[in-house]
Amino acid sequence: MDPSRQRYWVKLIIAVFVVLVLCLLFPPALAFAEMAARELRYLWWLILLVGFGVWLIWLSNRKIP
To answer: Total structural domains in the chain?
Structure first.
């Protein structure tokens, strides 16, 4: 398997594991996500939080000169 593809799968598995652990450690966050999925008026907060997390991941992957 190509090393870059293998690295991609390892990162994906780690990300899924981290999300599952966080859901177990912080039940209120899981309850908020469930409520956001049911109530459309709260859904934009969830989208904003996910977008912020993606932005932080992207920012952490940038090379600093």
So the answer is: 1
pTM: 0.48
Element (H, E) at 62: none
Tokens for 33, please give them: 């996500």
Does some domain include residue 42?
Answer: yes
What is the domain range of residue 23?
Answer: 3-60
Check the CA dihedral 5-11-15-18 and report its sign: positive
Q: pLDDT in tens for each of the 65 residues of the chain?
A: 677 788 888 888 998 898 888 888 888 877 877 777 777 666 777 788 888 988 888 877 776 65
Classify residue 65: in a domain, yes or no.
no
